[in-house]
Amino acid sequence: MIATLLLAAGQSSRMGGRDKLLETVDGVPLLALLTARALSVGPTFVTLPSADHRRRFALPQSAQIVVVDANLGMAHSIKAGIAALRDTATGVMILPADMPDITAADMAVVQAAANLSSAPIVRATTSQGTPGHPIYFAASQFSRFDDLHGDRGAHRLTIGLEDQTLLVPLQGDRARLDLDTPQDWDAYRAR
């Protein structure tokens, strides 16, 4: 089983008091949209900053919630998500929850590539080949997550393993498009 880990424990600190994961896309909160897309592909775990955080109410019942201390950074969020995976997980597909253009089909393509390949890492790229998300890690790589610290993502774990990483191009720039500021959201909605 390959699980999806949606990282949704960040503080939206650049949003001027708004929560980027509760901004609406296609009439629903972004977090709800991405979670539904991930659930259509397989088991989904979502990291949240607290058990009673308002983002929890945007999640479908079938999503598994992992509560983390958001002040400890993204690495802590990733490690808590990895720890929550059942022992039966053959791998994990990690995706920040602020990437509205990632579709269920994109996630399925990355997951299918992971199932068909012996590569321990499968990484989505833009159509021009720039690495992005989602990133798949085989269970054989889980112990490497212990070395992550601070507000750094799993990208660091791919450095030096380029020869063991399968790149999967997604359409346009969707593998890199994230929305962190009100200006990002305005530009996204205006396009």
UniProtKB/TrEMBL annotation:
Species name: Octadecabacter arcticus 238
Record-linked Pfam families: NTP_transf_3
Transmembrane segments: none
Top-level taxon: Bacteria
InterPro entries: MobA-like_NTP_Trfase (IPR025877), Nucleotide-diphossugar_trans (IPR029044)
CDD domains: GT_2_like_f (cd04182)
Name this polypeptide is given: MobA-like NTP transferase domain-containing protein
Matches recorded under SUPFAM superfamilies: Nucleotide-diphospho-sugar transferases (SSF53448)
Keyword terms, alphabetized: Magnesium
GO MF annotations, alphabetized: nucleotidyltransferase activity
MobA-like NTP transferase domain ranges (all copies): 5-158
